[in-house]
Design a protein that fits this description.
By secondary structure, the chain is mostly helical. The protein contains three helices and no strands.
Length: about 80
């Protein structure tokens, strides 16, 4: 099986490549050691434990039943 060297350590296939022996744990460790330290580019985010997380909600979609009722109802003009 041909493995693209650029994708050998891709997070999406890493577990499979380790399991199938395509890469060894030692190769993975050496690869991690070659990665640059970019921690100085990280942003610090403070979260209050007592504060509820706000999530973005997608607009609710109408059920098929409610759409059918609206279509069947006569419009007042």
């Amino acid at each position: 099986m041909h493995i693209d060297e650029n994708k050998k350590f891709d997070r999406r296939t890493l577990e499979r490549n380790l399991r199938e022996g395509i890469i060894s744990a030692e190769e993975w460790k050496k690869y991690l050691e070659t990665l640059p330290d970019v921690s100085d580019h990280a942003d610090l985010v403070m979260v209050d434990e007592g504060q509820k997380e706000e999530t973005t909600k997608e607009p609710e979609t109408k059920s098929e039943e409610s759409v059918e009722k609206e279509e069947a109802a006569p419009e007042n003009e």
